[in-house]
Write a structure and sequence with these properties.
heterodimer; A: about 120 residues; mainly alpha; two-stranded antiparallel ribbon; about 5% strand; flat; B: about 325 residues; alpha+beta; Four Helix Bundle (Hemerythrin (Met), subunit A); 2 domains; 5-stranded antiparallel beta sheet; about 55% helix; elongated; Cytochrome c oxidase subunit 3 (chain B); Cyt_c_oxidase-like_su3 (chain B)
């Protein structure tokens, strides 16, 4: 294939092991936080969500970034492909999450405060 | 033959043919198409999970209490450790996969073979671990009582520690057996009968003074509400209708039935992806051994299954967060 002859591939085993170490450290941090659940992070909320959950979600996206960029080699693809993959997903998923979570919260309110008996 | 050769004057230009859009080969591009659409499917599942969780935000189970098993540590409360182990296995098999791709770029057949093999082993361990996790989830640990309103009541001792139904249930001389086909002419099937009847649980509860009922509603400290002895008795007598051990698609001992449904669907769908990933990896592994890609002059096929394999890992990172951490 033209692909293998036109590109010269540097060996990037070093980077692979670096990313592995990074993902492992982040996972260990997540697990430790999940087990001890520091009171400060649980009691403080930001935008109606516990600080601890914000940390988990941000670390997850951080890990996802490294998996996609280093392992799936998005960093070596053309800008067009990268943007098509990343932005399509981000926009659609954000929209879906926003709609469904807002609606779920609304239904919770109706169950809790409205005239609907569901625990009988 | 001359007549069939068409010259458009665009050879070598953008629309002259022979180009790779976005500088990616056809196969790789289609793999990306598939991955993006599959990512949206998983997002749909996870967003639906989020919806149900927000809907039952004051009564959702605490993951640490549900997934707290570890092999050979029976009865020890070990939250998170096993799923952390599974996550490591999957991340590590992603590393061996990307090392195989890297070795493929340098046409090193031996190294590709070795790393592909390690990737397959990692995937198999992960699927096996998931099966074990499912087994624990389905079997259950403590058991609970179901109520008229579709809620569950769990039991704790005076210190707030969980008590299994089997530990305090009274032996009553009632024997109820599940109906079988040979009991009736028109009879086809019957629900399985739970191990203990609700009367046995009520009698056992009345006889054990130190046991209390725990509802699934969170109190203001973010812990499940424990009722007083009097409240427990009246709640149990007024509302309890059945006993549930473990989980299936219609009821579970952990909390809202939707929790078990989403657990089965999301981890099941992901596990199915891992399983098909392992099978595809095995096929590619044998192709590597047979020298197919050596003859083709390119290991791009390894790269393509690699993309799929990393995607499975990527999805697990999110499932791990939303099912076990948040």
């Amino acid at each position: 294939m033209a692909h293998s002859t036109t590109h010269h591939h540097e060996s990037n085993t070093k980077r692979i092991w670096f990313v592995f170490a990074l993902l492992s450290v982040v996972t260990i941090v997540e697990v430790i936080l999940g087990i001890i659940k520091p009171d400060f992070l649980v009691d403080t909320t930001f935008l109606a969500m516990k600080l601890l959950n914000w940390i988990f979600i941000i670390l997850t996206i951080y890990k996802a970034y490294y998996i996609a960029w280093a392992f799936m080699h998005l960093e070596g693809e053309s800008k067009g492909l990268r943007r098509a993959v990343v932005w399509s997903s981000i926009f659609l998923i954000s929209y879906l999450m926003f709609i469904l979570l807002t609606e779920g919260d609304y239904i919770f309110d109706v169950y809790k405060n409205g005239q609907v008996a569901w625990d009988f | 033959m001359e007549a069939t050769v068409i010259r458009t004057g665009t050879e070598g230009k953008t629309w002259g043919g022979g180009n790779e859009p976005l500088k990616a080969s056809y196969g790789k591009m289609m793999m990306w198409f598939f991955i993006v659409s599959d990512a949206l499917t998983f997002s749909g599942f996870l967003a639906a999970y989020g919806f149900s969780r927000f809907k039952f935000i004051d009564s959702w189970p605490i993951a640490d209490e549900v997934f707290n098993h570890f092999p050979f540590l029976h009865g020890v409360d070990a939250p998170m450790y096993y799923v952390a182990f599974m996550t490591f296995i999957l991340i590590f098999s992603s590393v061996t996969m990307v090392l195989a791709v890297d070795a493929g770029h340098h046409m090193k057949k031996g190294k590709v073979t070795l790393y592909m093999f390690l990737t397959i082993i990692g995937g198999a361990i992960f699927v096996g671990s998931q099966a074990w996790e499912w087994k624990n989830f389905i079997k259950g640990e403590y058991g609970a009582v179901t109520t008229n309103g579709g809620n569950i009541l769990q039991f704790v001792d005076a210190d707030g520690k969980r008590v299994a139904i089997a530990d305090f249930v009274a032996e009553l001389p009632v024997t109820r057996v599940a109906n079988q086909r040979n009991n009736g002419i028109w009879f086809t099937e019957n629900e399985t009968v739970s191990e203990y009847t609700i009367e046995e649980v009520k009698a056992g509860f009345a006889a054990n003074e130190n046991i209390l009922v725990r509802t699934k509603i969170f109190d203001e400290n973010g812990e499940k509400t424990i009722l007083s002895r009097e409240e427990s008795i009246s709640k149990l007598n007024a509302e309890a209708i059945g006993v549930v051990q473990g989980a299936n698609l219609t009821e579970n001992e952990y909390g809202p039935p939707l929790f078990a449904d989403f657990f089965f669907f999301i981890t099941g769908f992901h596990g199915f992806h891992v399983l098909s990933g392992v099978i595809i990896n095995i096929i590619i592994f044998f192709n590597v051994i047979l020298g197919t890609y050596e003859r083709r002059g390119s290991y791009e096929m390894v790269e393509k299954v690699g993309l799929y394999w990393h995607f499975v890992d990527l999805v697990w990172v999110f499932v791990f967060t939303f099912f076990y951490l948040v």
